[in-house]
Every structure is written in structure tokens, then in C-alpha cells.
Specification:
heterodimer; A: 165 residues; mainly alpha; 3 helices; 95% helix; rod-shaped; B: mainly alpha; 3-stranded antiparallel sheet; 10 helices
Chain lengths: 165, 328
């Protein structure tokens, strides 16, 4: 029993020497490389995490940008379409108006032409009738000329013609 | 007939020991020896170093020492042949010293093996031994040292000490569990030496960080000055009870398991019956597994208590001091 509970100064000194030596060797050749590697790895992982975070933010930004652009493009497209439709409508309306105007012009021209032709026809008919009447008169005059009565007749028919005109 | 011969005889013919002497003999075996006792063999090869009467005496082993005639080995102790008194200082390389060397060799080898892998590829994911050591180191750093030392500068400076403390105790505890081996941490000498280093680290670090004035101020324990007559003696006592508790805790834990194992096995010898054996063996296995747990636990407790004591000795000064350094 005394062997177990005995405090041996020799063992204490030897342990101090051994432990001190052990600490020296461990700190210099065992722990230091481990700590260096550990710190380097922790640094690398931290860097990787940070750069991943940065990349994520950048991607987020790009995505937002792209979305913005897409929205703008869409709005632009809608605007263009509306413009085009308006323009088309305006053109169609203008064309219709033009057509109407041309049609009216043509109609008026045709009317004028017809009136002119009617006038012409009437004039030539008058001449013709006058001619015929003159001839007929000459013939009649040649057969028997009954002065006043005939002259009245002729005048009457002329007046009639005049009215008809 | 020299007592060294008697010891050897006892080893050779264990059945010659009377039953009443079995437990004392086995307990004797737990302690330190001047013979190398490894893997069930005892060999008288360890050098004897004595400092006595102002002179150093060196002998190749206890046998040559006894032949020289000045000293004798009585019940494992070296005494002067002339008057039977102990030499001033017995600095012999003893059995447990050799076991400390074995433990140191084991851990350092493991660290070298791991270190080689770091040199080859520092960024590779850790494997095997490297991984285990890293787990221990990172755990000690993050759970034991950092919360107590607080300042990163101190953590960096004192990590080797705490890693060394933990691995040293753990490997000696575990070696003690191997059949035919001895537990160096099961001797008060070893644990006392470790506690002395803890005492030096605790107070050295405190004085270095908060200055001798701060350290003395801590002896008041935060009480008003007029309580100094009571507080200072208590705190001074506390300085020494902490390492003392460390010493006894580790020693007692490591010895207790062995003593229980010896008692259980000893029952077979007391009863001189094979039928006691199943019970003895069954309980022994249970205790053995418990001891495995205790090996890790006590290494951890010794380390964390040292760290906690350092933290207590530093008080709240660690942070402030760090800031001073930062601004300086």
C-alpha cells in the first residue's frame, strides 16, 4: 500500500522533465504543422464561402438586371404594337376618306359631263328641228303660202320648242 | 539473500504468496518499481541515479548497485546499506518513467505520421489518425481553451500546452489498460508533476496578463479590503488546493479502477475456487469498459479544469487586456 500512495520526488522530477520535453517536441514538430494546416484549411473554406456569397449576390444582381431588361423590352414592344395599330387605323381611315373624296369628284365630273352632253344634244336637236322646220316650211311655202296663219303656226311650234328646251 | 531476488521469486511463484499477502502484493505492483515491468516480464535493466550526501551515484541497475554494496533495495525502496536511511534524492529511471517515454513516443509518432500528410497536401480532407488528432485539437481549442482563455493571442500561445496535457494523460491512461502494462498516471508522482505544470501555467499566465498587482488583487476574491484577513489566506490556500485536487483526482481515478479489478481477481485467490471466476471475470469486464471511459474522461477533466482555473485566475481582464494590445 505504501508503494501506491508514496510521493516519489524522483518520479515528479522525471515527469516534469519528460512532460517538458514532450511539450517542446509536440509544439515544434507535432502541433505546429497541424495548426498551420488547420488554419490554412479554415482560411480556404472561409474564403470559398465568402466568394460563393459574392458570386451569389452577383448572380442575383444579374438576374434582377435581366428581369428588368426583359420587362422594359416587353413594355417597349407593347408600345410599338399600340403605335402600329393606331397608325394602321389612321392610314385606313385616311384611305377611306380619300376614296370617298375621289368618288365624289368623279360623280360630280360625270354629272357635269352628262349635263354638258344633254345641252349639246339639245342644241343640236334644236338646230336639227329648226332645219327640218325650215325645210318643211319651205316645202309648205312652196305648195301654198297662207300668210299669216302659217306664220303663226311656225311661231307656235318654235315657242313650243323653246319651252321644251 | 537480497530483496531483489525475493521480488523475482515472488513473480515466478505467485502461488507461494500467502492469501493475506495477495492484495498488498498486488497493490505494490500498481506502484512504481526500480525494475522494468513490461508485458508480464520483469527485467532489472533500469539505471539507478542517486544523490546522497552531496554526491551523485550512478549504477547500471539495482543488481550492480547492490553488488557495489553502498545501497540496498528493501521492499522496492533504495536504502543506505550502512544505516538503512533513504538517500537524499532518488532520481532513478523507474518503470513508470519508461512508460511515460512509451506514451510520449506513441503520441509523437502519431503526430509525425499526421504531419507528413500535411506536408504532402495541406488542403486535403483529413483522414485516419490525422482526422482523429484534428478532432482532438479542434475540440480542445474550441471547447476547452477558447471559452476559458478568451483572448485569441493566449489561445494560440497556450494551445500546445493543453493539447500536450490532454494527449499525455490520455495516452498514459490508455496504455495502462493494455495487459501487461502500467499506468503512469496512476502514481501520485506523475499527477503531481502535471499539476505543478498546471499551477505554473495558471499563475504564470495570470501574473503575465494582469500583472503582479492584479494577481495580488485577485487574492481578495472580489471582497472589500477589510475582509482581507479572511479572504487572503483562503485564496492562497485555494491556489494550492486546485492543483492538489487535480493531482488526487487523476491518481485516484486511475488507481481505483485497477484496485477494483485486482480485488475482483483477488477473490479467486481468496476462495481458491474456480467457481468464483465467472463472476470475477464478468465484473472485471464491466469495470474494464468503465475504465476505458474514465481514461478519456479524466484526461478531459484535468485539461478543462486547468483551463477553467486559468480563466478564473485571469478574471475579467483577458478582454480588456486584449483591447489594450490592439490599441497600443
Amino acid at each position: 500500500m505504501d508503494g501506491l500512495l508514496q510521493i516519489s520526488p524522483g518520479l515528479i522530477i522525471w515527469t516534469l522533465v519528460n512532460f517538458g520535453l514532450y511539450l517542446l517536441i509536440l509544439a515544434k514538430f507535432g502541433y505546429k504543422p497541424l495548426r498551420t494546416a488547420l488554419e490554412r484549411r479554415e482560411q480556404t473554406i472561409a474564403d470559398a464561402l465568402r466568394s460563393a456569397e459574392l458570386a451569389r449576390a452577383e448572380a442575383q444582381r444579374l438576374l434582377a438586371n435581366a428581369d428588368e431588361q426583359r420587362k422594359r423590352a416587353h413594355a417597349e414592344m407593347v408600345e410599338l404594337l399600340r403605335d402600329a395599330r393606331h397608325q394602321a387605323e389612321r392610314i385606313v381611315a385616311k384611305a377611306a376618306e380619300e376614296g370617298e373624296r375621289v368618288k365624289q369628284d368623279k360623280l360630280r365630273e360625270a354629272e357635269r359631263e352628262i349635263e354638258r352632253m344633254i345641252a349639246d344634244a339639245r342644241a343640236s336637236l334644236q338646230r336639227e328641228v329648226a332645219e327640218l322646220a325650215l325645210q318643211a316650211t319651205q316645202k309648205l311655202l312652196a305648195q301654198h303660202l297662207d300668210g299669216e296663219q302659217h306664220r303663226r303656226l311656225i311661231e307656235q311650234s318654235l315657242a313650243q320648242l323653246e319651252r321644251a328646251n | 539473500m537480497s530483496s531483489s531476488d525475493t521480488l523475482t521469486t515472488q513473480h515466478a511463484h505467485a502461488e507461494d504468496i500467502p492469501p493475506s499477502q495477495v492484495i498488498p502484493h498486488l497493490l505494490q505492483e500498481l506502484g512504481d518499481h526500480h525494475e522494468l515491468n513490461i508485458a508480464f516480464t520483469t527485467s532489472d535493466v533500469l539505471p539507478v541515479v542517486l544523490y546522497d550526501g552531496g554526491k551523485w551515484h550512478f549504477y547500471r541497475n539495482t543488481h550492480t548497485m547492490e553488488q557495489a554494496g553502498a545501497y540496498r533495495l528493501v521492499k522496492g525502496h533504495i536504502v543506505r546499506a550502512a544505516d538503512g536511511g533513504s538517500p537524499t534524492l532518488d532520481l532513478s529511471v523507474t518503470n513508470l518513467v519508461v512508460f511515460q517515454w512509451i506514451g510520449m513516443l506513441v503520441v509523437l509518432t502519431l503526430f509525425f505520421v499526421a504531419g507528413r500528410r500535411y506536408r504532402r497536401d495541406p488542403l486535403a480532407p483529413p483522414r485516419g489518425i490525422q482526422n482523429a488528432l484534428e478532432a482532438i485539437v479542434v475540440y480542445i481549442r474550441d471547447e476547452v481553451v477558447r471559452p476559458n482563455l478568451r483572448s485569441e493571442r493566449l489561445v494560440r500561445r497556450f494551445m500546445p500546452y493543453f493539447v500536450g496535457l490532454f494527449t499525455f494523460i490520455l495516452v498514459l491512461n490508455l496504455i495502462g489498460l493494455l495487459p501487461g502494462m502500467h499506468t503512469a498516471t496512476g502514481a501520485i508522482g506523475t499527477t503531481a508533476a502535471l499539476a505543478i505544470t498546471a499551477f505554473l501555467v495558471i499563475n504564470g499566465l495570470a501574473i503575465g496578463e494582469i500583472g503582479i498587482k492584479g494577481w495580488l488583487h485577485h487574492l481578495l476574491g472580489g471582497a472589500p479590503v477589510y475582509l482581507a484577513p479572511i479572504m487572503v489566506p483562503i485564496e492562497i490556500l485555494g491556489l494550492f488546493t486546485k492543483p492538489f485536487a487535480l493531482t488526487v483526482r487523476l491518481f485516484a481515478n486511475m488507481s481505483a479502477g485497477h484496485i477494483i479489478l485486482l480485488s475482483l481477481i483477488g477473490l479467486i485467490f481468496y476462495f481458491r475456487s474456480i467457481f468464483v471466476a465467472p463472476m470475477s471475470v464478468g465484473f472485471s469486464i464491466f469495470i474494464y469498459l468503465l475504465e476505458t471511459l474514465v481514461c478519456f474522461l479524466q484526461a478531459y477533466i484535468f485539461t478543462i479544469l486547468t483551463a477553467v482555473f486559468v480563466g478564473l485566475a485571469l478574471g475579467d481582464h483577458a478582454h480588456e487586456h486584449d483591447e489594450h494590445h490592439a490599441t497600443a
